[in-house]
Amino acid sequence: MIATTCTLDEPVLVLNRAWMASRVVSVRRAFILLFRSVAEVVAVNGSRYEIFDVDSWLEVAALQRQYEAGDHDWIQTASSMVAAPRIIRLIGCIRPPNTMVSLNRRNLFARDSNTCQYCGKRYPLSELSIDHVVPQSRGGRNTWTNLVCACVGCNSRKGSRTPRQAGLQLIRKPVKPRTCPDRSIRLHRRQYEAWKVFLNEAYWNVELRD
């Protein structure tokens, strides 16, 4: 598979020097770290880990193409094709894992499964909005427990009223996620099965960064 711009934006798990999951970066950013010699590639083969610096990762690409072509996403360089790494490990200082789940539009939609929390219907992103359960005009804040995914129709019907005043009812109580809402989406991909070795409920709250 020849990489597209989309492949360069695919997620790569970053471990700190202590082998703890620290954050997620794009493939593009991962290669920048590798070429700066501040990170190394971690390849998981069963219960065995293999470590590659950027030069050895480029050298092994030919064998990967021959025996593991279907197991990798590929990036076309000027002279060859290179497998996109899935896990890298920082060689320098230990960065403690992020224990916060970011309150942002992507995570809110993921928490609510792109489903309006009033009518219960699933919508494309273009037809969804974020609603304050307790309106801001009544002191409602931007918190996990006061923000829900709502379709444009329900949001318009509710307006600046509470759900009860608008004759609406939440299909479930909004709560703060204990873990990153789209974790399961990432881990469903076969290419990222290796991430499971380094992830657990205690520290999976990483953000995708460029």
Salient structural properties:
disordered C terminus, six-stranded mixed β-sheet, DNA Binding (I), subunit A, 21% helix, elongated, 7 helices, single chain, 2 domains, two-stranded antiparallel ribbon, 210 residues, alpha+beta
How would you describe this protein?
There is one protein chain. This protein has 2 domains: 5-99 and 181-209, no CATH class; 105-158, Orthogonal Bundle (DNA Binding (I), subunit A), CATH 1.10.30. It has helices at residues 5-8, 27-35, 54-59, 61-67, 105-111, 152-158, 183-187, and strands at residues 11-15, 21-26, 39-45, 48-52, 74-76, 81-83, 87-90, 128-132, 147-151, 208-209. The protein is an alpha+beta fold and 210 residues long. The strands form 3 sheets. The chain has a 6-stranded mixed β-sheet with strand order 4-3-7-1-2-10. It has a two-stranded antiparallel ribbon with strand order 5-6. Helices cover 21% and strands 21% of the residues.
Outline the fold blueprint:
Elements: H1 5-8, E1 11-15, E2 21-26, H2 27-35, E3 39-45, E4 48-52, H3 54-59, H4 61-67, E5 74-76, E6 81-83, E7 87-90, H5 105-111, E8 128-132, E9 147-151, H6 152-158, H7 183-187, E10 208-209
Parallel strand pairs: 1-7, 2-10
Antiparallel strand pairs: 1-2, 3-4, 3-7, 5-6, 8-9
